[in-house]
Amino acid sequence: MGRFDGRVAIVTGAGSGLGHATARQLASEGAPVACFDIAVDAAEKTAAEIGEHGGVGRAYRVDVSDPDSVAAAMSGAASDLGRPQVIVNSAGIGRFAHTHELPFADWQRILGVNLTGTFLVCQAALPHLMDGGGSIVNIASNAGIKSQPYSIAYCASKAGVVHLTRCLADEYLKRGVRVNCVAPGGMETPLQKAFMEFPEGVDWKAMRKVISPLGNSQPEEIANVVAFIASDACRYMTGSIVSIDGGITV
Ligand SMILES: NC(=O)c1ccc[n+]([C@@H]2O[C@H](COP(=O)([O-])OP(=O)(O)OC[C@H]3O[C@@H](n4cnc5c(N)ncnc54)[C@H](O)[C@@H]3O)[C@@H](O)[C@H]2O)c1
After folding, report:
1. CA 174 to ligand 1 center in whole angstroms
2. Which of 15, 31, 112, 197 has the smallest number of CB atoms closer than 10 Å to its CB?
């Protein structure tokens, strides 16, 4: 018997990196998984892999920053797979730039996907989770806990995800909804490659504090912790911010 037998999970950003690993992990433990991603081909690939391993996966094209897109996908997943009980908000974007050179559109897009997207998915999911029981795990970052240069929008969005998590945990504590947050450090995923483009004149000494001597984690390692937090083993955990970052925020 799996920890998530029959518990429908929604995973955003399921087409790549941590979202992909988390969708695979939850499905391997019995969850029917709705794979939400703006890159629908990638989400379909994840859903197909889940099917090939004997699980149930279904892909949905969703832009998490768009309320209508989120609402349509959430109700579609609920009617296709059943009441969502586990929500993992992993969709995220970012890039390095000097703050004084960051285009306003980039600020808006990064906040729109990382923070507003997390809010919109939580808001659309809550009516399904309340009273019947449910667990939300939001993905923040070490960048939401301590400062990091050249990533003002990313840091602000992730700090927002951290506090949004605490506020939701508080508000829905008595409605049977647990809300927690995982804050990874460097993870080997395509997003990290996007962060490999540094702006001119980088102060490498300032960058060193966000790089762990342990190197990067693999998304599967973080997905394991996400699944643990989402499971009943963490019945008593809500409003927690769990850092898994090779010690860079100690
Ligand atoms: N990789 C790292 O080093 C690292 C470190 C700390 C935190 N994180 C966080 O982990 C989460 C997962 O990142 P990852 O490294 O797996 O990245 P990734 O780029 O591998 O995957 C992100 C996924 O989100 C999807 N996505 C992007 N915009 C979207 C939108 N508007 N709507 C729906 N889906 C969208 C992408 O298509 C992609 O499939 C992110 O929230 C990221 O900020 C990553």
Report:
1. 31
2. 197
Tell me the CA–centroid distance for residue 191 and ligand 1, in Å.
Answer: 6
Burial state string for 124-153 with b = 16 or more CB within 10 A and e = fewer than 16: bbbebbeeeebbbbbbbbbbbbbebbbbbb
Mean pLDDT of the chain: 97
Quote the CA–CA distance of 135 and 124 in Å, as a whole number.
14
Asked whether residue 250 is assigned to any structural domain, the reply reads: no
Q: Within a domain: residue 167?
A: yes
* Ligand 1: residue whose CA is nearest its atom 11: 90
Is 196 within the bounds of a domain? yes
CATH code for the domain in which residue 83 is found = 3.40.50.720
The model's pTM is 0.98
Residue-range definition of the domain harbouring residue 197? 8-244
Atom of ligand 1 nearest to the CA of 63: 32
Cα–Cα distance for residue pair 28/205, rounded to 1 Å = 42
Helices (H), 140-189: 152-171
Give per-residue pLDDT as tens, 7-40: 999 999 999 999 999 999 999 999 999 999 999 9
154 in active site: yes
Q: Give the active site residue among 60, 150, 154, 172.
A: 154
Q: What is the pLDDT of residue 193?
A: 83
Q: Determine, yes or no, domain membership for 72.
A: yes
**Which residue is closest in CA terms to ligand 1's atom 16?**
17
Per residue in 129-179, pLDDT (tens digit) is: 998 899 999 999 999 999 999 999 999 999 999 999 999 999 999 999 999
Q: CA–CA separation, 171 vs 186, rounded Å?
A: 31
